[in-house]
Amino acid sequence: MKVLILGAAGMLGRKLALHLQRVGRIQGHDISELVLADVIAPSQDGARCVEVNITDAGQVSALINERPDVIFHLAAIVSGEAEANFDKGYAINLGGTQNVLEAIRGQQAYCPRVVFASSLAIYGAPLPDVILDDTATLPLSSYGTQKSLGEMLVNDYTRKGFIDGVSLRLPTICIRPGAPNKAASGFYSSILREPLAGQEAVLPVAESLRHWFASPRAAVGFLAHGAEIDTAALGPRRALCLPGVSASVGEMLDALERVAGPKARALVRFEADAAVDAIVSTWPKAFDPQRALAHGFVAEASFDQIIQTHIEDELGGVLPSF
Amino acid sequence: MKVLILGAAGMLGRKLALHLQRVGRIQGHDISELVLADVIAPSQDGARCVEVNITDAGQVSALINERPDVIFHLAAIVSGEAEANFDKGYAINLGGTQNVLEAIRGQQAYCPRVVFASSLAIYGAPLPDVILDDTATLPLSSYGTQKSLGEMLVNDYTRKGFIDGVSLRLPTICIRPGAPNKAASGFYSSILREPLAGQEAVLPVAESLRHWFASPRAAVGFLAHGAEIDTAALGPRRALCLPGVSASVGEMLDALERVAGPKARALVRFEADAAVDAIVSTWPKAFDPQRALAHGFVAEASFDQIIQTHIEDELGGVLPSF
């Protein structure tokens, strides 16, 4: 079983690679080779690390010519950059995906499992309070448009028998490890991550705001499970909403207080930011992801558990003392 | 007001050109120039007819450099051909649309109205009996995928201010003039067109099968109206389901009998075709197109009227005697 991760240098790609090395198997077969590719070559022991420009069809073909059995396609530029740089967003997020799919189609007698990382950005307001598997999508960003285009190509290439594709609409990943960033969604992680490290954080929106979350560990589990499931039962609809935890900011902070005490919560300071609020208040609040649940995708059961996962995976299981 | 029709040599393109020449105005302004473009140059008096290969970005740019105020984008290969020739379908139906949008984006201070002809092929089973404006799409053909991709690009290029786009999900056009064709939907026209010309026709499906129709005249009206409407009120959702007539085959034949007599109906012979049935039985049965109705799109009120329109527009207002 040969496995290729495209976009392996990102946070999820790195964690996915470690997970696959740890479990060592996909679909009951040993992983004989793990290839990690990104625009700057990843660095990971026990894997072959490759530099690839996904907008270069020749470079992509060279990777696909090795005929990996499973391809995780996580390579993308993020929403802010895709919005600011229209050409780059389409070149990488759409054109890159087309290069991958076309390189696969160019092979003979080859139909790899392709797990495509999609996004909640394919949804746009107005939305119901609970999104169902068949709720219509309406991207309101170029990034969301590009992810939605990718999903539809995955469906069509699958229907034609060129790939065996699965698109996973990942919840917002929380708590993201690392430094604070300027993404509109960044506060969702920083209002937990910083207090858990004994540092102050700013909350730019009201505590009533609700959104849909899964931990990095759960997201890695989704991706890995996407390589395992029996896709025949999915029929032609290869895009899946995923399980997660629906939580308001207030509920997130309540969970923080339960796990780490009132002093941790007191480190979060409210400072309204209308620009951030305007973006994130249109995002999905909750899902009823019946199809993914029926196919065995599992997320955390509570926000407390999401915080506990962060403490285990990022803080060595230890809370700082206050 | 300069107007460009891409795909002007097709049935709808020809009728649209004649309609625009007849009314002479769009958005209250005289049409100063009408450019008709297709892969083989159209032929029509009073218009400039141009040969263009829509997969050639340079040729498309040359047309767009003239900065038409309104662009009707009807250029496409049809569903059967897009399914049989994957490369050609994507090159023309997706790549061609991208060429048009990119050529427009390449201009400075230019934001033309773009009316994009979409299709019911963006929907796929399972479907509700009545499709609403926000029913999720699920293309089950490469053609439907390509039209859906086009709609999403029209949304995104509109949102970014590069175009002022409208995508129209045309009902099945009935009664198509001309010779019978091999399209799966061909019988919907031939079971009426041939009897109205005193000729036999074959019905390959049960009379209970229901579908969604508009006449060629109504379809031309939709396209022309798409150039007239106030798009600001559409917001970021630029794709519209359109009004039409929901009719079962039995109701279509009842209408035929009312308009042309029992001898006309007797010319239709049932001959089951499971392959055709398998395709068309998954198609939309009816719509409740509230948004298009609110924006003033108008279709026929009955199937009798659809037949009457054919008699007026194609048969000189005269039924053959039996």
UniProtKB/TrEMBL annotation, chains A, B:
<dbReference type="InterPro" id="IPR036291">
    <property type="entry name" value="NAD(P)-bd_dom_sf"/>
</dbReference>
<dbReference type="InterPro" id="IPR050005">
    <property type="entry name" value="DenD"/>
</dbReference>
<protein>
    <submittedName>
        <fullName>Putative epimerase/dehydratase</fullName>
    </submittedName>
</protein>
<keyword id="KW-0119">Carbohydrate metabolism</keyword>
<feature type="domain" description="NAD-dependent epimerase/dehydratase">
    <location>
        <begin position="3"/>
        <end position="202"/>
    </location>
</feature>
<dbReference type="Pfam" id="PF01370">
    <property type="entry name" value="Epimerase"/>
</dbReference>
<keyword id="KW-0521">NADP</keyword>
<dbReference type="GO" id="GO:0016491">
    <property type="term" value="F:oxidoreductase activity"/>
</dbReference>
<dbReference type="InterPro" id="IPR001509">
    <property type="entry name" value="Epimerase_deHydtase"/>
</dbReference>
